[in-house]
Amino acid sequence: MLIELWNRLRWMASQKVKELTGNFSTAADCNMDCKTCCLIDCDKGHYYTAGNCLECPVGFYCPGGRAAPRKCPVGTANQLTAQADIMACQACPDGYMSSETRAGCLLCPDGYSCDQHSGLWKSCNPGQYSPEGELECRVCPQGYVCPDGRNRQHCSAGQEPDPNYTHCVTCALGSLSTKETPGCQPCPAGHFCPDGFTAPPCPAGSFKPGEQFCKSSDSSCLSDAAKELQEESLSSNTELEI
């Protein structure tokens, strides 16, 4: 009676293991503790752990037997369970990186350059930027500054980017810029540029000799209108310095 019960228990254990997609056998002196002596050969797409055959998780592939799950390579992902070979790991599209779990692909975040082969992300340097989904950092576009490698800021009228594209600087005297221009431009002929962002025409009877103010056509003195603008500009600059 005891022998029959023992054989029955062993048969039930073998059926349970078969349900877990593996082939079951026991050593000659095996008891019913499958964690120690049951011999299980898991089917492909499954892996062995603690006496059981479990379905291979997403992000991995499982060749079967008693092998552990194998993680998909960097730059690939697998969103399906019970996959048996590396062909289940699909390359991420351009602009995407594989997630840490390899269960999916993520867009390269803005402000970073991304290496699909190594899986490394590197922040862009100041003066550069990178939109989401771009793998390489770009030089900050004309008329903009990129102070932190991520955000782009358009310079205001009367300003232009510094040579490193990290902050805006005021236009030099005798030049101007608007929101439509990429940088400071020389003041146009027949106009004067007292503040870096406006260019009113020279008053009648005066001309602009390559400076920010107009001069009288019959002397080297500034015209009255130009003098007033110069005084206003100097007063404004003094207040800013204070």
List the helices and strands and how they pair.
Blueprint: H1 2-19, E1 22-26, E2 38-42, E3 46-49, E4 52-55, E5 60-61, E6 70-71, E7 76-77, E8 90-91, E9 96-98, E10 105-107, E11 112-114, E12 121-123, E13 128-129, E14 138-139, E15 144-145, E16 153-154, E17 159-161, E18 168-170, E19 175-176, E20 185-186, E21 206-207, E22 215-216, H2 224-241
Antiparallel strand pairs: 1-2, 3-4, 5-6, 7-8, 9-10, 11-12, 13-14, 15-16, 17-18, 19-20, 21-22
Any overview of this molecule?
The chain is an alpha+beta fold and 242 residues long. The protein folds into three domains: 21-88, no CATH class; 108-170, Ribbon (Tumor Necrosis Factor Receptor, subunit A, domain 2), CATH 2.10.50; 171-234, Tumor Necrosis Factor Receptor, subunit A, domain 2. It is 15% helix and 25% strand. The chain has two helices and 22 strands. Strands 1-2 form a two-stranded antiparallel ribbon. A hairpin with a 7-residue loop joins strand 15 (144-145) and strand 16. Residues 13-20, 217-227 and 236-242 have low confidence and may be disordered.
